[in-house]
Amino acid sequence: MTAKLFVISGPSGAGKTSILQKLFQRRFIRSNFLKGISYTTRQKRPGETSGRDYYFVSKPVFLRLKKEKFFLETQKVLEHYYGTAYRTYKKALRQKKGLIICIDVKGGKYLKKSFKKDRMVSVFIVPPRAKELYRRLAKRGETKETIGKRVRLAEKEMKYLRFYDYVVINDKIKESVDNLEAILRAEQLRRGK
Ligand code: 5GP
To answer: Which one of 25, 32, 78, 119 is most buried, by most CB atoms within 10 A?
Structure first.
């Protein structure tokens, strides 16, 4: 198998994190793919662990790493910085595994420009209805103000759907995980050019 970059995006609250968690419980996925852990300057949410969900770092540390060209890509989402480390991608290359990263739409668009067409696959995950998105965000225990900001951002993010190769509508989680796995399997079986 050849290593490829798999970019997963979608509006906040679409269910990306839950889908990826379930996806990595599957043996085929664990054997053939790595999950990229991003760096972020945002606060840890309840239940999140550094090194598993993100590497939580301060803004000065993040900016220093960025200056040192530590990142494959970085973006500012709302008021926080997020970035994918170069070394994660290199690790996937070394192990001949696909790298799955969950990043925002601007990061996705940037990588699409910098990667060769046959080296990157992008998947957009959407919630079935706008109301569902609000409900999922509200469940995270964030303030009304943050939820409002995220809902407005989600509306903007939906406009990026057309830049993605595949769309998964996250209605029933098991079906979404099955669909994503089908995409990953097929893409890894694609004949190299
Ligand atoms: P959250 O704060 O909800 O965990 O993430 C906010 C947004 O940042 C999500 O769309 C998430 O996919 C995105 N994100 C997480 N890590 C990265 C990254 O390394 N790069 C970019 N560009 N976006 C990221």
So the answer is: 32
pTM reported for the whole predicted model: 0.91
Strand partners, 33: 98
Instruction: Domain 5-189: give its CATH code.
Output: 3.40.50.300
Give the span between the Cα atoms of 104 and 157, in whole angstroms.
8
pLDDT in tens, 4-62: 999 999 988 889 999 999 999 999 999 999 999 999 999 999 999 999 999 999 999 99
Best substitution site from 12, 45, 77, 102 to test ligand 1's pocket, by max atoms within 8 Å of Cβ? 77
Atom 23 of ligand 1, nearest CA residue: 103
Q: Name every protein residue with a CB atom under 6 angstroms from any ligand 1 atom.
A: 12, 38, 42, 73, 75, 77, 82-84, 102-104, 107
pLDDT at 23 (0 to 100): 98
State which amino acid sits at residue 84.
T
Terminus-to-terminus CA distance in the chain, angstroms? 13
